[in-house]
Amino acid sequence: MTSPSATQYGKTSPLIRLILSAFLIVWIVLAAFPFLWTLWGSFKVEADFFSKVDWTFALSGERTIAETGSAFTGAGYYGAWVQEEFWRAALNTMIVTFFVVIISLTLGTLGGYALSRSGFRYTFWILIAALVFRAMPHITLVSGYLLPFFELNIWGILPTTIVVLVAINQPFTLWMLHSFFLNIPKDLDESALVDGCTRFQAFRHVIVPVMWPGVITTGLFSFLLAYNDFAITTMLLSQDNQTMVPKIGSFLGTTQVQGNVMFAVAAVVSATAPLFILVLFFQRQIVSGLTAGAVKG
Amino acid sequence: MPHRAFFWFILPSALAMLLFIAVPIASVVIQSVHIEHPKVMEEVETCGPFNCTTEMRVDAEATAKLKQAEPLGKFIGLETYFNRNHLAIDSVKTQWQQRDGFFSFVRGLYNLPFYKALSFTLVYTFVVTPLVIVLGFMIALAVNSIPKILRGPAIFVSLLPMIVTPLIGSLVLFWMVDANGVLGSAIQRIFDDPNLSLKASPPLTWIMLLVYGVWHSAPFAFVVFYAGLQTVPQDTLESAMIDGASRWERIRFVVLPHSAPLVTFVGLIQLMDNFRVFEPIVGFNASASATSLSWIIFNDLFGQQQLFGSAAATSLLTILGVCILLMPVLIRTWRQNNRVVA
Amino acid sequence: MISFKNTLLTGSLLLAFAGTVQAESACGIKQGTISILGNDFPALHAVVDAAEKCAGGDVTFSKNHSKDFKDVMIAALTADPAEYTSVIVNNGVLVTLMNDGLVKPLDDLVAKHGAALKKNQLITVDGKVMAVAFMANAQHLFYRKDILDAAGVEVPTSYEEVLSASKAIQDKGLMEYPYAGTFKAGWNLGEEFVNMYMGTGGSLFKPGSAELDINNEHGVATLNMLKSLTEYMNPDYLTFDSNVVQAEWEAGNVALSNLWGSRTAAVLDDEGSSEEVTSATMFTAAPVLGGGSTPSTTLWWDGFAISTNTSNEDAEATFIAMMNGISSDVANNNADEAVWLIDGYTPGAAAVGVAETAAAGAKPYPMVPYMGALHGAAGDELSDFLQGNEDAETALADIEAAYVAKAKEAGFLQ
User: Fold this and answer.
1) Neighbour-count burial for B175-198, b at 16+ CB within 10 Å, e otherwise
2) What is the pLDDT of residue B340?
3) What is the C-alpha separation between C5 and C42, in angstroms, rounded?
4) N or C: which end of chain A has fewer CB atoms below 10 A?
5) Residue C397 contacts B where some CB pair is shorter than 8 Å
6) What's the pTM value of the predicted model, to 2 decimals?
7) Among A79, A107, A128, residue at a domain's last position
8) What is the nearest CA distance from A1 to chain C, expressed in angstroms?
9) How many CB atoms lie within 10 A of CB C370?
């Protein structure tokens, strides 16, 4: 046993290892199967992947062969990316997620830091208020935004959506970063204060350098929120500015045009690829981040 | 931290929340105690492509005048909260008086839209939340015990249920669990019942939604717990090992206590999110058998007849519900906070 | 922060510019803003795309096709100026807009630019043209000729015959679930209720009032027929919307269905189905109920309306553009996508079902302001009855109770 886990937990009996591995394999299959099924199916036509006749059509490609002449077709990808210009939506998603993450984290670190360093009673109430805010169903909020946004003529554009996503995500960001900052010893910034720094200087020079792990983890959740949001983006963005998820929703339509459903499936598979790279890239930071952070709850 | 510095640090974040959450909540509170003005109606001839008929219509001008005088609508206090589509106080009272055993009372209650939604919402919250915590913890332990080189892919795959957008995730799963679908027919084979359909019966639909909920949320718990495991103090673990503690004992007496705050955190977020369950019900076309509070709000806002007051009342009842659920956590935080101050 | 915002604004501005195509206006519009909101299906794409050809020069054009267009519609038109100059509406949607006075009378514009319109395209309320219709739709009977022949039954003309034909098909072992309906809880189920009720000849409301009049023998007959139909339907019927029914049909699992006329072309095309199914698929009028003569269905139209909060200039530009969108060329080039009401359109084979239904005297979907409240209440409350949890009278009482609460809140009932 030379694997790193061995140093962490000491020797593990082969039986327990076996049980754990078996459990993990079951979970991996459960987690991955629907996605792999989608990946496979994205190269079929609708009548196969969503077959009402026999699910094995999705494997054999019965109708795909009948309609396209081969067992695999890239029609879904072509339709989504070329015909329906999914790249525009991808670009919009990049813009939205980038700014949501950056702004969320900027506001969240400032606020979270302040909440963790102030001993006054109102910090508790601010945190509780944030929790209550988070309990508000998003659809109610969004339906309330519509009229003011139309009247101010700011409906449909990306900045509005970014600001709304940031605001809606603030309670979670605040809570997470607040508990993270609690874990950074107070002595650090207090000694800076003693040395004559202002609060902001202390934050800037002492706290910022050590806060990245927690910030990156919080950023992951902000990222996922902005990336996956449907309720807000679908209501607040005009058709030209749609991000990926509402665009995928629009492929489904009311009266689904045949084949468009497969655009959606292909688009979903495409939309997952960047996440794979992202997770692999940030894997270590994500872990070390939460390590220092949320632990305090 | 002095008040002044605190103020400037928290300002941007507080401003964002105030403007986009607190103000809407305030307007929702006002909305929930008003209904629309009585519509001024008139009978007019309406002609379409198929025929002409005499039909009622709203005199928009006259109604607009009423609205101008009192823009908020007609004040009715808490009536909306108590009407048949919400807490249904009157129906509940009569049903209690005419009850014919406890079971029939519950059945009658279940016939009312709010209580029907509440029952699924509560079941969903209290089944999914603990299962997500347990499953997430087990996955975290398992992933933590494999060689480092495999962990990256394992983390990615474990995150998949959370990152594939629920919109498509539920669409694909909806077809997979169809009686003709790959999972649906597998289940039929397992239970040896060719007529078994997950979508047809309410209990099976509930189970399907619960399983989906656990599957979808487990990754969140997993990420948090997995990270928590990285911080388990090495020296404590080693001394436990020297004392001859078995693996189970080490988990029981070192890892679990260490992860307790994380369990609170995950539980808090999950209770909240599960109480607002909505997307799976739409994704699985399940509203015939299972509705939730959020679904009722959606139905009032975007259904055939827009009812802002109704939606507002249900939204506030949802917030109230979340507050009650979170009460134990809030009290605990309050005590902790007091300790800090002291 | 500030630099982020600037980058953001510049970015979105650039995108906005990239989106506009510069060209000369082809429709004789000098200037104006045209923006159209509508549902998301091929017939409307054809209309709006044709209208878009009017863009260019000083005419700016934008469109938003969304299946959730109703969700943003009210707010978008309440703002002044309205976000959209025109909304593509149907019977139900127009009433919603008129309740709040959000669409303007079109009489002047029709007189000036509407020479090509037929009289029956004009939706007039109290003598004023409120919308211009361009296509019709209705749920009507789809049937599989080969299966009916094999079962030895005639094409059903009443729901009683639909039941007996379904039974015959089941008894012969031809199909397990021969009938399919759009019974998904919510809007679809509400629509099935309204459709079936129309066949009883009863009226939904007490004359001249918003009071419901369904808790009677008509209502019971409606519910009982809906329930009887479910015996021949796939047990998942409460999750079946048009998409699922179409898929079932194309898979050859179903022999009879009361499905939307707008689905005929999609069912007949070469995608998703086999020759065996498409060649035997036929359409006819919706069945009647209980010996009545009115088909148990409702007629729908789609048309365009123009926002109140729009300048006269923009309204005129929009009207001209939409008239271009609903030209006879558009109709004939998309003959199978819809049953067009447009002058000079030659109906395709797929239009026969809607035409026969209208000819048989089916009623249009009621344009009364409180129809939405009833439709919603029926769609939500009926699933309990169909699942066998309560009897017809209780279900009707439930619908009524839910309706009353909604109608009171909306100000229709006191």
Assistant:
1) bbbbbbbbbbbebbeeeeeeebbb
2) 53
3) 38
4) N
5) no
6) 0.89
7) A79
8) 50
9) 28
Q: For residues C162 and C225, what is the distance between their CA atoms, to the nearest angstrom?
A: 10
- Give the residue, C212 or A71, on which the prediction is more confident: C212
Among A271-275, B38-42, B314-318, C104-108, the minimum mean pLDDT is found in A271-275
3-state SS class at C112:
helix
User: Which of B109, B305, B314 is the mutation pick for testing C, counting most C CBs within 10 A?
Assistant: B305
SS3 content of chain B, % helix, strand, coil (to 5): 70, 5, 25
Identify whether residues C95 and C170 lie together within a single domain: no
For residue A180, report the phi and psi dihedrals to the nearest 5 degrees. Answer: -70, -45
Assign 3-class secondary structure to A227-295: HHCCHHHHHHECHHHCCHHHHHHHHHCCCCCCCHHHHHHHHHHHHHHHHHHHHHHHHHHHHHHHHHCHH
Three-state DSSP class for residue B303: coil
**Residues of chain C above pLDDT 70, percent:** 94
Are C277 and C187 contained in the same domain? Answer: yes
| Calpha distance B183→B180 (Å, rounded) | 8
How many C-beta atoms lie closer than 10 Å to residue C321's C-beta?
Answer: 27
Q: What is the CATH number of domain B114-341?
A: 1.10.3720.10
Question: What is the rounded distance in angstroms from the CA atom of residue B116 to the CA atom of residue B107?
Answer: 10
Residue A7 lies inside a defined structural domain of this protein: no
C47 plus C191 within the same structural domain:
no
Domain that holds residue A29: 12-79
| Yes or no, beta carbons of A133 and B22 under 8 Å apart | yes
Cβ atoms of residues C263 and C199 within 8 Å = no
**C-alpha B100: how far from its chain's center?**
33
How many CB atoms within 10 Å of residue C99? 24
Total domains in chain A come to 2
Say whether both A93 and A170 belong to one domain: yes
In a domain, C5, yes or no: no
Q: Distance between CA atoms of C356 and C258, rounded to whole angstroms? A: 14
Q: How far is C56 from chain B (nearest CA, A)?
A: 33
Is the predicted ipTM greater than 0.90, yes or no?
A: no
Asked whether residue C264 falls in the same domain as residue C370, the answer is yes
Q: Give residue B342's pLDDT.
A: 39
Is-contact C248 C102, C-beta < 8 A? no
Do residues B172 and A265 touch, judged by C-beta distance below 8 A?
yes
- Do residues C56 and C30 lie in contact, with contact meaning Cβ atoms separated by under 8 Å? no
Winning range, highest mean pLDDT, from A19-23, A241-245, B75-79, C301-305: C301-305
- Whether C369 sits inside 8 A of B309 (CB atoms) is no
At residue A90, the 3 state secondary structure works out as helix
The range of the structural domain enclosing residue C74 comes to 25-137+300-351
Residue to mutate among C80, C123, C206, C239, with most B CBs inside 10 A, is C239
Contact call for B85 and C187, based on CB within 8 A: no
Pairwise CA distance, residues B103 & A147, whole Å = 46
Tell me the residue type at C268: L
Structure tokens that stand for A194 in this block: 């003693």
* Type of residue numbered B131: L
- Residue C252 maps to which CATH number? 3.40.190.10
Is A83 an interface residue toward B (CB < 8 Å)? no
Q: Which residue has the tokens 């047990």?
A: C235
Q: Which of C366, C369, C378 is nearest to C403 (CA)?
A: C378
Q: Which of B178, B269, B333 sits opposite A124 (nearest CB)?
A: B333
Residue B137 has what pLDDT?
93
CB contact under 8 A, C398 and B111: yes
Q: Which of C397, C402, C401 is nearest to C385 (CA)?
A: C397
